[in-house]
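Posting this for the archive.
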Amino acid sequence: MSERRDAPRGVVLVLPGQGTQRARMGTGLYAALPEFAERVDHVLGHWGAAGAEIRADWLADSPALGIDDIRRAQPLLFAIDWALGDHLLAHGTVPVALVGHSVGELAASVLAGVLGLADATALMADRLVQLADAPPGAMLAVAARPEDVAFCLGDGVDIGAINGPRQVVLAGSLPDIDRAAARLAAAGISTRQARSPVAFHSGQIAAHALRSLPAVRAVPFRAPALPLWSAYTGAPLTAEQVHTPAFWAGQPAAPVLFWPTLTAALDHVGPALVVETGPGRSLSTAARRHPALVSGASAAVALLPHAAGDPDQDLRAFRDALELIRAGSTV
């Protein structure tokens, strides 16, 4: 891999998921950029009255449901991820890879042409119905490698995500996660609660996730038109996976291998500009730990700021990112 800082860079889109949601995320850009607002409204419109309620809560100072409620976090993360990604594609960006995290993979699949937006929103709605009675759970971000937390696994605790070289997320029931947090603290390992009332990407919700199989079987899937790397396998999406309903239905319960997948994608595509195509900056921050970014051969940028809701900040971050994409990518 070349380490020339002026080498042409392909664009790698990384789309965030559960845990990155913040109150009023993206609302500043919604107010400042009509094209973005139209795209978000288009997604929410597929959910009818429920979509109108989601938008009202998203824009409200005192929402009826908090942003961490999966009935708000999941649809809004999907809508914002897709709206930002579709804006880039519509304005000429042709990514050399897409990597989605959790619900971000569903949005990435639409951008890659694997399924249509209407079908994806229908699957999202069904997924929320199936998870509505999932047992209370928790997710715990841990500053450690998977092997460092092995002594806490089992007994209701799974690795839900690998987000960085020393960043994993554990998932399980509330009591089990509390016990794991205590054991990790005693071992001197730093933790923090992740923002999810459901133990996503764990065995605790596996049966609930598979209830979506009938809805998934009713949806037509197509081969990706853009290179889609699945964070559930760490590799490009295969034709077999595209047409395997259990692969899609099981995603909410399957571990997210974001860091291994991003590492493999960056090693494959060469010099790249990693663009965080969603709220916050967690994935682009993680990407900067990759050797290609440390060396300067590749770079990362986020389309939205870490703080949420200010139109000037949102629009400034968005325009600055677009300028980097135009100046430093191959498109």
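Strands lie at 10-15, 97-100, 137-142, 157-164, 167-173, 191-193, 228-230, 235-236, 272-276, 299-302. Residues 10-113+208-328 form a domain with the Malonyl-Coenzyme A Acyl Carrier Protein; domain 2 fold (CATH 3.40.366.10).
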